[in-house]
Amino acid sequence: MKTKKQGNNWTAWYDPETNRYFARIMYTSREGREQYDYEITRDIYSRLGAFGEDSENEDLIRTGELAYSFENTMYGTLGPERKVWDDEASGAMNAAVRRQEKKKG
To answer: Are residues 9 and 34 in contact, defined by beta-carbon separation less than 8 angstroms?
Structure first.
């Protein structure tokens, strides 16, 4: 099974070591960056990339469990905001991403 899928603003990973699926939606603009991490199901993962529009893939990802939200506003008066809804899922996703990055390098 393919362990990574990607669009313009989203990336999804399958971690064969834990048999879990994760996805990230990220937007970058002049004002900063918004990042949203999700734990998704196998069904969601299998359907990703089947849509012609990235927005449809992002809508599908949003049906998963939100684990982490981060917004970095470069020009705002407030500093970066970070909200973790599920520490365990956030940590598992970051570990899966690191393992895949190591395999590439």
So the answer is: no
Q: For residue 23, which amino acid is it?
A: A
CA angle, residues 7, 66, 12, in degrees to nearest 5: 25
Q: Which residue type sits at 71?
A: E
Q: Cβ neighbours of residue 72 under 8 Å, at least 6 residues apart?
A: 32, 33, 34, 80
Per-10-residue mean pLDDT of the chain, 105 residues long, equals: 89 94 86 84 94 91 87 57 73 82 73
Structure letter (DSSP) for residue 61: H
Scored b (16 or more CB within 10 A) or e, 18-37 reads eebbbbbbeeeeeeeebebb
Specify the 3-state DSSP secondary structure of 44: helix
pTM of the predicted model, to two decimals? 0.76
